[in-house]
Amino acid sequence: xxxxxxxxxxxxxxxxxxxxxxxxxxxxxxxxxxxxxxxxxxxxxxxxxxxxxxxxxxxxxxxxxxxxxxxxxxxxxxxxxxxxxxxxxxxxxxxxxxxxxxxxxxxxxxxxxxxxxxxxxxxxxxxxxxxxxxxxxxxxxxxxxxxxxxxxxxxxxxxxxxxxxxxxxxxxxxxxxxxxxxxxxxxxxxxxxxxxxxxxxxxxxxxxxxxxxxxxxxxxxxxxxxxxxxxxxxxxxxxxxxxxxxxxxxxxxxxxxxxxxxxxxxxxxxxxxxxxxxxxxxxxxxxxxxxxxxxxxxxxxxxxxxxxxxxxxxxxxxxxxxxxxxxxxxxxxxxxxxxxxxxxxxxxxxxxxxxxxxxxxxxxxxxxxxxxxxxxxxxxxxxxxxxxxxxxxxxxxxxxxxxxxxxxxxxxxxxxxxxxxxxxxxxxxxxxxxxxxxxxxxxxxxxxxxxxxxxxxxxxxxxxxxxxxxxxxxxxxxxxxxxxxxxxxxxxxxxxxxxxxxxxxxxxxxxxxxxxxxxxxxxxxxxxxxxxxxxxxxxx
Amino acid sequence: xxxxxxxxxxxxxxxxxxxxxxxxxxxxxxxxxxxxxxxxxxxxxxxxxxxxxxxxxxxxxxxxxxxxxxxxxxxxxxxxxxxxxxxxxxxxxxxxxxxxxxxxxxxxxxxxxxxxxxxxxxxxxxxxxxxxxxxxxxxxxxxxxxxxxxxxxxxxxxxxxxxxxxxxxxxxxxxxxxxxxxxxxxxxxxxxxxxxxxxxxxxxxxxxxxxxxxxxxxxxxxxxxxxxxxxxxxxxxxxxxxxxxxxxxxxxxxxxxxxxxxxxxxxxxxxxxxxxxxxxxxxxxxxxxxxxxxxxxxxxxxxxxxxxxxxxxxxxxxxxxxxxxxxxxxxxxxxxxxxxxxx
Lengths: 540, 343
Prior knowledge:
heterodimer; A: D-Maltodextrin-Binding Protein, domain 2; Dipeptide-binding Protein, domain 3; 6-stranded mixed beta sheet; 31% helix; globular; B: 343 residues; MetI-like fold; 15 helices; 76% helix; transmembrane (chain B); cell membrane (chain B)
């Protein structure tokens, strides 16, 4: 018996013990189709995205319970599913905004009717306090704000109650998109200040447990390690009020259990399912599966230039010709995602990113390149991957190990536990050959190149150092996309990346979700969190 | 009577003995967590952290201080009853332990009840009829129970009783979505709901418990059944049993009054060991059934080098072991009068 049938049955009993105890249970959860149940494998560890130690799955609270100044519109993709639209900035808390001639002063007019949950109007002072907090607390929020050139409290000014101004050291195309990220939320500063202490001037302890926002949903209940329950804010002013009254996010660590729950119809939505399940569930046809290629994200094989043989470009190219791309795409990605091999030319024509590199498996060519290289006799190297990513990384590594063996490179596998991964791979950058999966939130190629191809930056785990790319990134990062120099610069970056291949793209992964047939309105977002605001349940 | 103060003395003596053990555990758990690979500051600095932001996190976590300074700060906190804040779950370790330990205890307790109910009769029957079909059945159950990994049994049971048959409620933790947790008294949902007089919730909590408890129980019944069988076999060969039989006592009385009572001591020892072992080792069962227990908490904490949580877990488990051993020792003196007469 499915839960919904059960609910109907119970509500049909107007009297009786069953119905009475039901009232004692979740109030108002009964038969109406307005409660959505979501399962996820990860745990939410804070309701405050600015706090240090807040993990990724917790960002969804910022998305659903808080408002930002700006948001993105949405677009329909080729397969009929919906995605946010990077090229379509929309107002959220701001009613309108104005960019000065030199692009260095941004002025936002706030909505008149926007109120926090406690009824207090949202003012520019709240925006200022929240932004000050994000750039001061350090850690991830500060780094993400800095990506939009928002670094100092002095840059933010509350001109009057409804006018907020940002001053930039230079104009940047990344600032406005950065204001849509889950980090740039607006917090009820009066509630927060009332709970601030001398040791904790930004009320991190209070907001950690008690969100104070103006967003579409409030947190009704948080049982750490078990569930988070959102309830709708009926007075939300920054968008259409949600159709669903309540959303229950249940944490179910075992993927097999999550799959059983969605297949049996006891839950409505399963967030971030493995590619293998996505394929099988789709084939079974009972539930809807949506796979969206993750923008600005690549699964790559990185050759670390600190490892002597990889300093030879011929060795790197030989590897790029030896990788069994198609087998990886079929056996690790289960055909979900976008292929990134077999491109037409080594001179890119478009500035689309990611785009296929002109490599494909050609062992003859790979052997020839190895023979020409300074390591014609081959060498041994460990191939490392993150155990937390084992679902795709392990089959990928095995296939690469086998293929590289054929061109004289003896590969051993090195599995690194999740917590250790960031330290050895990204901070120390000490892994000779490894699998990496960086994706940039802000969807421009130069943003990807900034993080992944510039010496010293976090995701450049190859220790790749190229003066020209660094110069191009420097010149392009803040440049407007319609600048005449923008496209040639990007094309040149991609061309160097293709020729030098310090990072060998394997494929562009996709974000897979499964939902019941009656659940509609799902939208893909770059932050990969579930935005519950547009979701609806069809009455059946 | 002299026996009562003697027993008290035993308890006091045992508690005193536990002190050096606990001190040792505090030191070792502190050092071991620091020896874990991985840098928590890097991990918790988040996806796009820069050098400075990692450094800021390190300072805010107090990890920039030297080891002895960190250790004394930790001991100072412990003395004030503070176990620190778990970074991976964002909750105070003490809160986590007090909510998760009852969940694990409830699960393990029910699993053990199931185990005993199945394993002891099985063991006794197998011992009284060696090499009969029941002995073979016992051997089969024991071997299967040990050799099947718990996550496999768990998933198989979920597949059969939830997915195919639909008899069992959705494996979504301690309570179905429809119910609210009962007011906190003991932390055991079934008992708390009964105290509250809410039979519906108690029934629901019990229904959630059955599959995970059986899964864990299947795993733990092996040592209990084997130990019961072995101990019974040994006792049944004893002279006093032959004498009792020769004296014409009924088979029932011989078996349960004389044989079982003498065979029960090693079984109790095994029970204690199995209980404490199962409490920490039911991680996989907890994962499959989304059970918010202490095992999965500890493993998650270990994976992300969450020092405070790991230390708190080790310490509380150590305390539990001490208490459990004490309880077993005291139970011995109740079961076996010889022990009470000594010293």
